[in-house]
Automatic annotation (TrEMBL):
<keyword id="KW-0479">Metal-binding</keyword>
<dbReference type="InterPro" id="IPR036900">
    <property type="entry name" value="A-D-PHexomutase_C_sf"/>
</dbReference>
<dbReference type="Pfam" id="PF02878">
    <property type="entry name" value="PGM_PMM_I"/>
</dbReference>
<comment type="similarity">
    <text>Belongs to the phosphohexose mutase family.</text>
</comment>
<feature type="domain" description="Alpha-D-phosphohexomutase alpha/beta/alpha">
    <location>
        <begin position="220"/>
        <end position="318"/>
    </location>
</feature>
<dbReference type="InterPro" id="IPR005846">
    <property type="entry name" value="A-D-PHexomutase_a/b/a-III"/>
</dbReference>
<dbReference type="InterPro" id="IPR005843">
    <property type="entry name" value="A-D-PHexomutase_C"/>
</dbReference>
<dbReference type="Pfam" id="PF00408">
    <property type="entry name" value="PGM_PMM_IV"/>
</dbReference>
<dbReference type="InterPro" id="IPR016055">
    <property type="entry name" value="A-D-PHexomutase_a/b/a-I/II/III"/>
</dbReference>
<dbReference type="InterPro" id="IPR005844">
    <property type="entry name" value="A-D-PHexomutase_a/b/a-I"/>
</dbReference>
<feature type="domain" description="Alpha-D-phosphohexomutase alpha/beta/alpha">
    <location>
        <begin position="55"/>
        <end position="193"/>
    </location>
</feature>
<feature type="domain" description="Alpha-D-phosphohexomutase C-terminal">
    <location>
        <begin position="489"/>
        <end position="539"/>
    </location>
</feature>
<keyword id="KW-0597">Phosphoprotein</keyword>
<dbReference type="GO" id="GO:0008973">
    <property type="term" value="F:phosphopentomutase activity"/>
</dbReference>
<dbReference type="InterPro" id="IPR016066">
    <property type="entry name" value="A-D-PHexomutase_CS"/>
</dbReference>
<dbReference type="InterPro" id="IPR005845">
    <property type="entry name" value="A-D-PHexomutase_a/b/a-II"/>
</dbReference>
<dbReference type="GO" id="GO:0005975">
    <property type="term" value="P:carbohydrate metabolic process"/>
</dbReference>
């Protein structure tokens, strides 16, 4: 570390401090600057971590820890992002017409502050800015983009990230039909943000008055969501948790409007709380996150457990299982996705959805959706990860991603929606109960109809992002010839695009037994992720399940040795 480098980062920090409107981050940064000026090498190192790079704006928008600095989420960064997005919208506006944007926010720390800053800066730039009336789920914002026919939407949320994170998701209306941004829009917006950051202080950005949407937007979303479920023929005993997020109020209204009884709730997790006090990570996928829900389910003898993540764009399901620890088993994202895909295909076949349509999932999700599409004569689309891609599949009837994301109502919401997916799954469970069957019975019927599809996932959280890059490079430089005793047939590198897919840092390993392994860095967290899928359609349902599971187990063990 050179004296010149320390001086440069101190200058950057002082310039940032001079335009930071937030009392908390100003005090935090002031302390770091004072310590660095007094000779603390730890403080200088921390300033380099905060200012040597900038939190990148991409197709996932922005997401990071709340703190001062260009590499953190804070009011300065959000103000620059809002002003850059405003420039992008003005550049693409029809001459003589003011662009429009709707802005939503969840219950995380600073979400409302970031949303209000965005609305004021958008209005100050000459854009019609509409702020949703209160903290709400991400799917309501995604719905509002289309319902209000605006040019863009912004949702302030970090979804299921750790408590001190926040983020900034951008949607586009018009030709994009309310989907999240993809390239080249992300690049254009990022360039405009950098121009703003290189210019004047954010304190000098003009601000204006914005509109506040009325409750009719939420009412319309609730009505549209309830409409996906037919009148229930049987009531299901349900336990619901909001995971300290914003899902409960909207979900409860949708369930009631659809004719279902109100679920039992996990009281300790039902209200929004940015500290997420009962979970280490507010993500239903994480071990222990659903423990309170299954505890309540045991007490209530529930037939179904429904969990949303904090911004309610994801859905987790657990069902009774005497062999599982605690008596309930959380279904994997693939299991829920395949059951909902089957539900959607049957509805489509019954004429509830016009046209032949498309089932879509990401390349890391179960190949079982393709089997459903073949069975029902539907098109199938395999996309890159993220609903920004899934939502753009032509003729979309249903889309899912194994990370608990499901799109069941594409006519109204072009993003994953944990509330409408929960209503759809509750409707499925109700129909099964009316027929004297359970969700477990339906999973067995799926195997008999389409074959067994087994999957597993390895998720390696790192503190040094260089470890992820080095692991990906090693797999490229030294490709394995066998994994878990199963021979590798070929490895497809998606870095330069493959089979019509855009370039992505993904390796797809095809095994000689028909199994598949995907390896990629996470797009939102410091993780290397490995996805393993195998299938079998030979023998009885039990034999199919055993064969697919055995293959996945062998490959899982082999990959842990390879990348662990």
């Amino acid at each position: 570390m050179t004296t010149d480098a320390a001086a440069r980062v101190l200058d950057q920090a002082r310039a940032w401090l001079a335009q930071d409107p937030d009392v908390e981050t100003r005090a935090e940064l002031r302390t770091l600057i004072d310590e660095a000026e007094a000779g603390s090498t730890d403080a200088v190192t921390e300033l380099h971590a905060r200012f040597d790079v900038r939190l990148a704006f991409g197709t996932a928008g922005l997401r990071g820890e709340i703190a001062a600095g260009s590499n953190r989420m804070n009011r300065v960064l959000v103000s620059q992002a809002a002003a850059g997005l405003a420039r992008f919208l003005l550049n693409h506006a029809t001459i003589g017409e003011a662009p429009s944007v709707v802005i939503g926010y969840d219950g995380r720390k600073n979400s409302q502050v970031f949303a209000t800053d965005t609305a004021e800066i958008m209005a100050g730039a000459g854009i019609r800015a509409i702020l949703l009336p209160r903290l709400l789920p991400t799917p309501v914002l995604a719905y509002a983009v289309r319902h209000l026919d605006v040019d863009a939407g912004v949702m302030v949320t970090a979804s299921h990230n750790p408590p001190n994170d926040n983020g900034y998701k951008v949607y586009l209306g018009g030709r994009d039909r309310g989907s999240q941004i993809v390239s080249p829009a992300d690049v254009e917006i990022a360039e405009e943000i950098l121009l703003i950051a290189a210019g004047s202080s954010v304190l000098e950005l003009p601000r204006g008055g914005f509109e506040t949407a009325d409750e009719s937007v939420i009412d319309a979303y609730v009505d549209a969501t309830a409409a996906i479920a037919p009148t229930p023929r049987a009531q299901v005993n349900v336990v619901y948790t909001a995971m300290h997020g914003v899902g409960w109020e909207t979900f409860a209204r949708a369930v009631s409007a659809a004719g279902f009884d109100e679920p039992h709730i996990v009281h300790a997790q039902i209200e929004p709380d940015p500290a997420f006090p009962t979970v280490a990570f507010p993500n239903p996928e994480e071990p222990g996150a659903m423990d309170l829900a299954t505890e309540e389910a045991r007490a209530r003898q529930a037939e179904l457990v429904i969990a949303n993540d904090p911004d309610a764009d994801r859905l987790a399901i657990a069902i009774p299982d005497a062999s599982a620890d605690g008596g309930y088993r959380r279904l994997s994202g693939n299991e829920v996705g395949l059951l909902l895909g089957w539900w959607a295909a049957e509805r489509n076949a019954a004429g509830r959805t016009p046209g032949d349509g498309t089932l879509a999932c990401s390349i890391v999700s179960s190949p079982g959706l393709a089997a459903i599409a073949r069975h029902y004569g539907l098109h199938f689309s395999n996309t890159l990860t993220g609903f920004k891609w899934i939502s753009r599949a032509p003729g979309l009837v249903f889309g899912f991603e194994e990370a608990l994301g499901y799109l069941v109502n594409p006519d109204d919401v072009r993003d994953k929606d944990g509330i409408s997916a929960a209503v759809a799954f509750l409707s499925l469970a109700s129909e099964l109960k009316a027929e004297g069957r359970t969700v477990a019975d339906h999973l067995a019927a799926f195997t008999e109809t389409f074959g067994a599809f087994a999957s597993s996932q390895i998720s390696i959280r790192v503190t040094d992002l260089a470890r992820i890059a080095s692991t990906m490079q090693r797999l490229r430089d030294e490709p394995p010839s066998q994994i878990g005793g199963i021979r590798v047939d070929r490895i497809e590198d998606l870095a330069d695009g493959f089979g019509g897919l855009p370039p992505s840092d993904v390796l797809r390993i095809q095994l000689t037994d028909g199994s598949r392994i995907m390896v990629r860095p996470s797009g939102t967290e410091p993780k290397l992720k490995v996805y393993i899928d195998s299938s079998s359609d030979e023998g009885s349902a039990a034999e199919r399940t055993a064969a697919a599971s055995a293959s996945v187990a062998a490959l899982d063990a082999g990959m842990r040795e390879l990348v662990g």
